[in-house]
Design goal:
By secondary structure, the chain is α+β, with helices and mostly antiparallel strands. The protein has 2 domains: about 170 residues, no CATH class; about 150 residues. It contains 12 helices and 11 strands. It has a 7-stranded antiparallel sheet with strand order 8-7-3-4-5-6-9. It has a two-stranded antiparallel sheet with strand order 1-2. α2 runs antiparallel to α7.
Length: about 350
Amino acid sequence: MNENRQLKPSWKAVLLTVSATAAIAWMLVCYARTGRDILLYMGMAWLAVLLSPFGLLSSALLLRWRLRVGYMVAAVGAVLPLPWIFMTESRAYGNSWIAMNASSLEPDLYMRYSQLRIVSVVFLLVTLFWAMTRLLPSDWQLRSLPVNQRTWPSIALPFIIVVCWFAASAFPYREPLIVDAMNPELSILNVKKDGITFHETHVSVYRDGRYYVTLNDRQLFRYSFEETAHEGLLTDDLRAKLKVIQALPELKRTLHKAPRALRARHGEGWYTEMESFAIAAFTTEKATIPPADLVDFFRAIIGSPSTGASSHYEVRDVCLGFCYDPKAGLGYTAENQRCVSGADGKERCY
């Protein structure tokens, strides 16, 4: 059986390889613009990345005249950048999905580079599986149609890989930053869930008598939401109430792991933390009632006058609201606040 009966020319294959070439080239240009020292990555993996666009472009030309050779070159060109891309990804620190959570105050250049990494991986995987499928023997049949004429494997398999990559990288919620700041003396988060809307108010009190209040109304299936923040100073009355709060035995019965977001259609949750890195939770889903003194102190803080101007900023969640949890609402959003490298060298996030 000749090559023309086994493999049929397709403009889609040419378009796919050209698109993959453009994605990789654009990613490299954006990478250079970030000002990173490319000499740090010089090696066989980096050389493979640089050769990839030439291989993919060559395959686009070969696909018009030498199909089998064209698909072989396309498969090689598509696989070349993947080792470097995944070698420079980390589940805990510096991955492309967490970069999508960057604050609106961060430079867009780094987010664009991360977006191009994701797009490039998608194009490369589709190109790779498309080419490998077309190279299968023509006598391999699936429902009376040769497997090498099927398109769905080159869509389904990359989709599964990208979804697994996303799930391993995006959870738990983090923003692409590292912080080393003083922990608050007391943090209180109140969450009211109404359908797909979460009304969140977070109060953090520090030893110097300052407190900060942040408020947002975020919704599921939305990439970003607005948050406002203002600060104030504790009065003598509030200081007295704070001492009562710190002595409450209920707040010392903390959870062993980070609490999950409210799942019921309507519900309310109260979450506290007192310098112990452990959280106490009171939610309608667990039928637990927050101490009256805690609620009273919280409302007194909310009702106190601000001592400075309010700030407004945008918060993003690449999971469309499903990654954001009470621990993030309590202020744990930096990478080093939610991930650690263990003694065994493995990265763990919580």
